[in-house]
């Protein structure tokens, strides 16, 4: 681990990404407060005159009116009556990101896609000599090649953590450079909430140790923070704040799954049961693309007055027949507590206990019998055909997709959907 004397990291965050993409694509939304909601039915009030659900993102104009990215739609409309609500379009946002990153790479190579709206880059010697010109070149390229509605904030510093902190200091459309030789000055006025990796539990432990502000944290010892955290991540955070080149630890995949809050007209049990099959099929496709098998399946159904959870062990499988068969068993077990007349507003399916396909321990009597092998061949053939035609041309059982259902294509904080997720 080395101490960094120059600016080596650039962190870029697109401002109000979902809403700004909507404004770029629809001129009628430009200059107006825009909120993005989960599904089409949430853009209009229900029979009571109440806007259902929550707003998941909003434009800079909406934020200027006092709104935040995540808040109830009804509250948002009450605070800002002129707010325009639009349904999310994950495939559009994914394609917009592809276009934006293509333009950015004409200026500087991209190191990591951190999320749908955040990237990191490694700054070369030229950028270190004139970081302001590098940042402005990126902003100019986006404005000229994509449009004026999509802006970005940029932070630059010695390492990824410090550049991310810098990026958040001047939003929207800002540029902040934390020069290593200026540290810790610009950090001392920040709160613990401004530091990535410091959560509520960490803050409580810091306060209990008498570390009540950034000055005290800066003056602490790395072993002390490691002890407070209870693991090496505390020590790594200390070194990152002090400008050391701290590399991200490799992570191991733990699950593949999908969870959805359902539109009001799709919450009947038969509809949810059919939709859960699609969600699980999409999760299984992703799992196979990444080269895993699963030994467990978790199932969650949220009703208005209770939440039902169940799980089932699987024999190290990856094919649709085995996985969907297990899901139907879970639905059969749920029948004792979930009636056909119930309403389910959220459904979740998760494949867990993952094994690399190369690490699978075969059991000829159960895990790898001839029937399972044939289903696996059929599933691989189905995947190949769907990739070839760019849609779900073949599925195991019915595929009752409705417009706007976004099965498999929802964008989360940690996952950017692939093109195949929208098949």
TrEMBL record:
Q: How is this protein annotated for GO cellular component? A: cytosol
Which InterPro entries does the annotation name? DNA/RNA_pol_sf, DNA_pol_Y-fam_little_finger, DNA_polymerase-Y, Rev_trsase/Diguanyl_cyclase, UmuC
* One Pfam family cited in the UniProt record for this chain: IMS_C
- EC number(s) in its UniProt entry? 2.7.7.7
Positions of the UmuC domain: 9-199
The Gene Ontology biological process annotation of the record reads: DNA repair; error-prone translesion synthesis; SOS response
CDD domains in UniProt: PolY (cd00424)
What PROSITE patterns would the database entry show? UMUC
Q: Which GO terms describe its molecular function?
A: damaged DNA binding; DNA-directed DNA polymerase activity
The chemistry this enzyme catalyses reads: DNA(n) + a 2'-deoxyribonucleoside 5'-triphosphate = DNA(n+1) + diphosphate
Q: Assembly state and interactors?
A: Monomer.
What does the UniProt record say this protein does? Poorly processive, error-prone DNA polymerase involved in untargeted mutagenesis. Copies undamaged DNA at stalled replication forks, which arise in vivo from mismatched or misaligned primer ends. These misaligned primers can be extended by PolIV. Exhibits no 3'-5' exonuclease (proofreading) activity. May be involved in translesional synthesis, in conjunction with the beta clamp from PolIII.
Give the matching PANTHER family.
DNA REPAIR POLYMERASE UMUC / TRANSFERASE FAMILY MEMBER, PROTEIN UMUC
The similarity annotation says: Belongs to the DNA polymerase type-Y family.
Specify the protein name: DNA-directed DNA polymerase
Q: Which organism is it from?
A: Litorimonas taeanensis
């Amino acid at each position: 681990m080395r101490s960094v004397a120059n600016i080596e990291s650039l962190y870029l965050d697109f401002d109000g990404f979902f809403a700004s993409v909507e404004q770029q694509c629809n001129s009628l939304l430009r200059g107006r407060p825009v909120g993005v909601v989960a599904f089409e039915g949430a853009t209009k009030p229900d029979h009571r005159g109440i806007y259902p659900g929550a707003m998941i993102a909003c434009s800079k104009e909406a934020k200027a009116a006092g709104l935040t990215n995540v808040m109830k739609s009804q509250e948002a409309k009450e605070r800002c009556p002129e707010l325009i609500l639009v349904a999310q379009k994950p495939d559009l946002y994914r394609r917009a990101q592809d276009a934006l990153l293509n333009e950015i790479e004409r200026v500087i190579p991209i190191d990591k896609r951190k999320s749908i709206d955040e990237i990191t880059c490694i700054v070369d010697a030229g950028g270190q000599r004139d970081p302001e010109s590098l940042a402005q070149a990126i902003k100019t390229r986006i404005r000229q090649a994509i449009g004026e509605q999509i802006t970005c904030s940029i932070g630059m510093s010695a390492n990824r953590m410090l550049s991310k902190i810098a990026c958040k200091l001047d939003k929207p459309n800002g540029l902040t450079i934390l020069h290593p030789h200026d540290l810790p000055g610009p950090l001392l006025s920040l709160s613990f909430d401004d530091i990535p990796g410091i959560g509520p539990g960490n803050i409580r432990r810091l306060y209990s140790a008498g570390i009540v502000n950034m000055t005290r944290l800066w003056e602490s010892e790395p072993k002390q923070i490691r002890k407070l955290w209870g693991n090496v991540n505390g020590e790594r955070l200390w070194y990152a704040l002090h400008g050391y080149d701290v590399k991200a630890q490799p992570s191991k995949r733990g699950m593949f799954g999908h969870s959805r809050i359902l539109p009001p007209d799709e919450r009947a049990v038969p509809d949810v049961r059919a939709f859960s099959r699609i969600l699980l099929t999409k999760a299984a496709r992703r799992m196979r693309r990444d080269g895993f098998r699963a030994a467990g399946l978790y199932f969650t159904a949220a009703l208005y007055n209770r939440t039902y959870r169940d799980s089932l062990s699987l024999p190290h499988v990856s094919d649709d027949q085995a996985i969907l068969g297990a899901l139907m068993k879970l639905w059969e077990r749920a029948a004792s507590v979930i009636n056909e007349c119930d309403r389910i507003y959220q459904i979740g399916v998760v494949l867990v206990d993952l094994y690399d396909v190369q690490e699978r321990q075969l059991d000829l009597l159960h895990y790898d019998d001839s029937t399972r092998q044939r289903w696996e061949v059929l599933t691989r053939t189905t995947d190949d055909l769907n990739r070839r035609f760019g849609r779900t041309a073949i599925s195991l059982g019915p595929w009752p997709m409705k417009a706007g259902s976004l099965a498999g294509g929802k964008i989360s904080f940690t996952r950017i959907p692939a093109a195949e997720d929208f098949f």
